[in-house]
Amino acid sequence: MKAKKIINDPRNVVTELLEGLVWAYHGRVRKLEGVNALVKTELPPGKVGLLIGGGSGHEPLFHGFIGENMADGAACGNIFAAPTPDVILAATRALDQGKGVLYLYGNYAGDNMNFDIAAEMAAEEGIATRTVRIWDDVASAPPERVDERRGIAGDLFVIKVAGAAAATLDSLDEVYRVTAKARDRVRSMGVAVSAGSLPETGEPTFTLGPDEIEIGMGLHGEAGVSREKLLPADALVDKMMQRILADLPFRRGDEVCLLINDLGATTMMELLIVNRRVRQILEREGIAVHDTIIGSFCTSQEMAGFSISLMQLDEELKRYYDMPARSFGYTRA
Amino acid sequence: MAKTHLTIVETVQMLLHVCHGMQASKDLLSEADRAIGDGDHGVGMARGFEVAQQRLESQPATTLEELFKTVGMALLTSVGGAAGAVFGTLFRGGARGLAGREHFDAAALASWLNDGLKAVQERGKAQVGDKTMVDALQPAAARAQELVSLPLEEALPQVAEAARQGVERTKDMVATVGKAKTLGERALGHPDPGALSTYLILQYMAEYVAGRSDTATPP
What we know:
The structure holds two protein chains of two kinds.
Chain A: H1 13-24, E1 29-31, E2 37-40, E3 49-56, E4 67-68, E5 73-79, H2 85-95, E6 101-106, H3 109-124, E7 129-134, H4 155-168, H5 172-184, E8 186-194, E9 212-215, E10 226-229, H6 233-247, E11 255-262, H7 268-285, E12 288-295, E13 304-312, H8 315-322, E14 325-327, E15 331-332
Parallel strand pairs in A: 3-5, 3-6, 6-7, 11-12
Antiparallel strand pairs in A: 1-2, 2-5, 4-14, 8-9, 8-13, 9-10, 11-13, 14-15
Helix pairs in contact in A: 2-3, 4-5, 6-7
Chain B: E1 5-6, H1 8-24, H2 26-36, H3 41-58, H4 64-78, H5 81-94, E2 104-105, H6 106-124, H7 134-146, H8 152-170, H9 193-209
Antiparallel strand pairs in B: 1-2
C-alpha cells in the first residue's frame, strides 16, 4: 500500500522543504541560489566553517542543525541520496573565510565520495577542508572495522560539540581534533518496527512482518543484527544497551550524554518507557547521565522505531557540549 | 570495411546515442535497483544523461577530452548519491588520456576505460568481486586493452560483451561496499545495477558505431 504524504510534485520535495525551513529560521539562514544548500546569513569574520550534510528525508537532520554554536551550513541531497559535489562546493565557498571548512557527515559510500570530490575541487580553489565522518552505529560493523560503520542519530552529539568548537577555536586542525574526539566517543544502536517510504514512489523502503522488529537496522532499511518477534520494551532495551555499553566500552564512573531518538513514527510515550529502562541500566552500571535528549532528531520518514545514543564526556567535550546552542531542530539554553 | 574510428563530430553523436539510450533504460535500471537497493538508480541515471545530452547539444564540440569531461561533470552534478560520483568519475577521470587525441578509436576506448577504472577505484575503493560497476568495468577495460589495434567497430562489441559477462557474474556476488552491502545474501541472484549501467553505456556506444539503433538487451 502506498503511503499517504502531504506533498506537491514529488520531484520538488527537497527544494520545497528547504524553502519552508528557511522561513522557519526567521532570517538566520538563507538558501544559496540554484543549489540545495543552506548557510547562516551572518558569519562571524575569520571563523572556521562547519559544513554538515547528507541525504534529505531525515529531518531535522542535517539542515535543521544550522545556527548559533551549531553548523554554519548544510549541503542537502535528494531524499536518502548524498548531495552532489557542486552543491557541497557552493556551500564551502559561502562558508570559507580564509580559515577553512570542516566537513562533518555520516559515513556512507555516496556521501564519502561526493564530499571527497568537493574537497579536491575546493583545494584547487585554495580552500582548505578537513573531514570527520560519523560512524556511531555499533550494529553496522564490528569494532575493529569502525570506519565501515554507518552514521545515525549520534550525529547530533558530534554536530553539537563541533558547532561549539568551531565557534570557539581558531584553527581548522583544532576544530577537527575536538570533533573527531567527540565522534570517537559516541555509540548508538537502533531498532526498526516498521518502514518509512520514499516520497517519489510511496513505496516502503523495506518490509517487516506484522509482529517483527529488526534490531540494528539502518536508516534506509540496511540489515541489522537480528530480526525477531516484538519484545517488551525492557527486554529490547536490555539487548541494545548490552551491545552499546560493551562497544566503547562505557565504564563505571563514566559521565555520558544520552539521546533517545524517534525514527519518525514512534510516540513520546514509548520513548519515555525506553528512557526509564535505559536509566535503570545506567544506574546499575554506575554511569552518570549529564544530559538527556528525547525526541525526533534523525528520522527516516514515517519509519517506526528508535535509537539509543551515548556520548562519553571528558572535561573538554563537556565544556563544548554545555555551550548554549540554537537551531531549528535542536536548542540548548 | 569496419569503421576504424570516429571523428569528434561523430563522437558527439555516439555520446548523444548513449544519453538517449540511458534515459530509455530508466525503468530497467530502477527495477534492477529495487531488488538490492532503494530503487532510484534508473531515475538518477536518466536525470544525469538528460543533463549530459543538454550540455552536449548546447556546447560546440571541441576535443575528445572536453566531450568526456562534459558528460562526467553532468553526471557528477545531477545523478546524486554514489552513482553520480562513480559514473561522473568514470567519464572525468577517463578523459585524461584522451588529451591530444583527434579520433575516438580502439586505443582511445582502451585509454578511457583503463584511466576511468583507475579513477573509479581510487574514489570508491571497490575491487573486482565486490558487486559494483567495477565488476563490469574491469573486464571491459582489460578486453579493450587487448584489442587496441582492431577497428573500433570490431573492438566495441567485444568490449561490451566482456562487460555483459561481468554483469552476469555479479548475480553470484554478495555486496561488500555501498548501501547494498548490508543486504548480505539477500542480494544473491540479482545483478548489480551499476554494473548493468556500465554494460549499457558500452552497448549503446557499440550500437552507434555499428550504425544500428536497436535497443541494447539486458543480460
